[in-house]
Amino acid sequence: MAGITLTDIVLVLNRTTILDGLSLAIPPGGITALVGPNGAGKSATLRVIDGLLAPNSGSLTVQAKRRAFVFQKPALIRASAAANVALGLAALGLPRTERRGRVAAALARVGLAHRAHDPATRFSGGEQQRLALARAWAARPDLLLLDEPTANLDPGATDLVEALVAEMAAEGTKVVLVSHNLAQVARLAADVIVLAQGRAVEHGPTRATLLSPRTPQARAYLDGELPWSSLAAAS
Amino acid sequence: MTDTIRETFARLATLDRDVVAIAWLSLRVSLSAVTIGLLLGIPLGAVLAVARFPGRGALVGLLNAFMGLPPVIVGLVLYLVLSRSGPFGSLGLLFTPTAMVAAQAVLATPLVAALTRQVIADAEDHLGEQLRSLGLSAPRRAGVLIYDTRFSLVTAALASFGRAISEIGAVLVVGGNIDGHTRTMTTAISLETQKGDLSLALALGVVLIALVVTVNAVAALLRGHAVRAYG
Amino acid sequence: MVVPRRGFLTLGLLALLGTATLAHAEPASIVVASTTSTEQSGLFKHILPAFEAKTGIAVKVVALGTGQALDAARRGDADVVLVHDRPAEDAFVAQGFAKARFDVMYNDFVLVGPKSDPAGAKGTDITAALTKIAAAKAPFVSRGDRSGTHSAELRSWKEAGIDLPAVKGDWYRDVGQGMGPALNTASALNAYILADRGTWLSFKNRGDLAILVEGDKRLFNPYGVMLVNPDKHPTVKAKEGQAFIDWLVSPEGQASIAAYRIGGEQLFFPSATARTP
Asked: Does the keyword Transmembrane helix apply (chain B) (predicted)?
């Protein structure tokens, strides 16, 4: 029940137009991927949805009680893993015992329960991103925004993060995923939105959209993603 | 010259309880001033790093300039303020250690605030978006950023301690260099220099430097321990 | 909780405690604005313990030039002044900042200079010595800080008939500092300087300097003590301040002053016989 509608969104930062009349409707449930070339406005779209950036014009409806955002670089503070997860609960006004329970559950969920008291900044990249997911999940969001969450991770760590994201989505959390990894998009997402130059140029089911894009902008982007193209040609 | 140095070390061995009392006063005054400086400067620096409001740039510039506030001017202004004929004369604080703490706190606060602002601004670049996304209020974000940068803020504390304990202009003017009451290491060194007792002045200087080095070493040890424990 | 509120609270309490304990240092005390010569000669360190033990009143001495000491007292920042510039002291009384001035002690000024004495100033006549120094343009260091010693120096130039502003040149170094720093400068420059005997005797960094002129009656250097008028500044601790003055001029205080010696030489001579209201 977390549908998102953006209508004619314009966002200008430092005199550069980032979103140029962006309109899109993200259906509730499942995982929706945002793809597109650098500078297309993917990250900005996520930030507008989360309220981190206020659009200059346009309208926005986000049907979600609670949002959580996981960034490409896990922004962890110099404290224990548990304290970092608790940070996600600080604004919720939960009683102490409930907070503790949620922190423990979130750490267990991402497989880091045994490292609850270790300094988070000393975790490996994959562990840090799992911790960021735990922090996001601890708040029990019904909308999870992921901005290239595995861009800096090795394949093993990527698999772990993908499995967690898929699980959370299966449990009913709406996930919006920005990723350049089209194989990952194909594995996770039900539908794909292709952005170009601050607009949504195409929106459709993942496989159909990736294999046979209808618009020239989407085709240009997808053709440029060589590994995917060669894989598609081989299959 | 070599005679003076040889004599200096001979004098070090015979430094009496007076010197201990003077060193203790210096330490108490400067540590109190730094504590006040931290209590005022860290929140001020954090607010300037996190908040956006008109005139913020000017305030930051002013703060950076105040890092170099001349101690003797601070002393003079505070002297006029605390003098019996001044606006706060009724407090009777002139020529007391409290006045010296106030003067050094005035020197320490902008230094702490300016260094804090820089450190927190860097942390904000890295964490700010995430903290806002978590729905934390501005004061809470500032609190988390202060906590996150606590090890770097130790450096700000040490810098302001160094400035406080080594300055003479302010404590001399508002403290009056009263024997056994407001005489600090720096004013004692100055006095012995004036009396031409250069070897005693140098011996006191060695004690002052040892004091500063010790405080820095203790802070470095504590910090190292904390960093190992908490990342 | 992530933010260590308790830590900051503790710090704050520590700061308050720190300043609070600093504020309540002693019970009864007075502030005496005095001159660098009395402080740096070590006189106060010698005489004060007896007074403090007897009365329980702590004496806090702020050492300034005579002019600055009188200014601090005018602002109400001292309870008692002990200085050595008779005309300035009389003006202080005349302006109503003190009700009375008491003679306490005297010592004398000495002309100090290089042992080689290039200007040939050695002798017992200060005006003759200054005339020779000016004629030879030999290096001379002046306090230049409105102190009692500075006043005495300017008086001596005048008595020698020398128009200082007119003849002043590179040889005349106005340092604007206390007796000690001025002596340090003179020692470094191997220059002539007028100094009070007390500071000179306790001064350790003499280098090549020695006393060249002493014993001239005009180099007499009397010290006076005054209680700041409580009518002008109600915060003045009149009872304690007067107790200190009374003790200074009492036989006990006078004996204590006379007993202070450096290297067997007496620095200050009691003079509390004549009372000058």
From this structure: yes
User: Cα–Cα distance between A131 and A36 in angstroms, integer?
Assistant: 27
Please state whether C206 falls in left (phi above 0), alpha (psi between -120 and 50) or beta. Answer: alpha
Reported confidence tier of residue C198, pLDDT bands at 50, 70, 90: confident
Instruction: Collect all residues of chain C within an 8 Å Cβ-Cβ radius of residue A90.
Output: 1-2
Residues of chain A contacting residue B133, judged by C-beta atoms under 8 Å apart: 50, 52, 67-69
Would the CB atoms of C205 and B198 count as touching at under 8 Å? yes
Asked if A111 and A163 count as a contact pair (C-beta separation under 8 A), the reply is no
Q: What is the residue range of B166's domain?
A: 2-230
Look up the domain containing A200 and give its range.
Answer: 189-235
Total number of domains constituting chain B: 1
Give me the mean pLDDT over the B54-58 stretch. Answer: 92
Average pLDDT of the residues of chain A: 91
CB pairs under 8 A between A and B: 59
Bigger pLDDT: C222 vs C276 = C222
CATH 2.70.98.40 fits C26-107+222-276, yes or no: no
Cα four-point dihedral sign A213, A218, A221, A224:
positive
Please identify among residues 47-106 of chain B the ones whose CB lies closer than 8 Å to any CB of chain C: 83-86, 89-90, 92, 94-98, 101
User: What is the pLDDT of chain C when averaged over all its residues?
Assistant: 88
Burial of A92 (0-12, 13-18, 19+ CB in 10 A): middle
The per-residue pLDDT for A195 is: 95
Domain boundaries, chain C: 26-107+222-276, 108-219
Is A204 a member of any domain? yes
- CATH code where residue A145 lies: 3.40.50.300
> B223 in contact with A at a CB cutoff of 8 Å?
no
Q: Count CB neighbours of A210 within 10 A.
A: 23
Q: Quick one: residue A29, left, alpha or beta (phi over 0 = left, psi -120 to 50 = alpha)?
A: left
What secondary structure letter does DSSP report for C220?
E
Interface membership of B122 toward A (CB under 8 Å): no
What pTM was estimated for this model as a whole? 0.83
Tell me if the domain spanning C108-219 has CATH number 3.30.200.20.
no
Domain membership of residue A139 (yes or no) is yes
Residue from A90, A176, A166, A88 nearest A131 by CA: A88
Strands (E), chain C: 29-35, 58-64, 80-83, 98-114, 140-142, 172-174, 192-196, 209-213, 220-228, 261-262, 265-266, 269-270, 275-276
Residue C2, chain A, CB below 8 Å: the answer is yes
**Yes or no, beta carbons of A121 and B231 under 8 Å apart:** yes
Q: Does A72 touch chain B (CB under 8 A)?
A: no
Domain count for chain A, please give it. 2
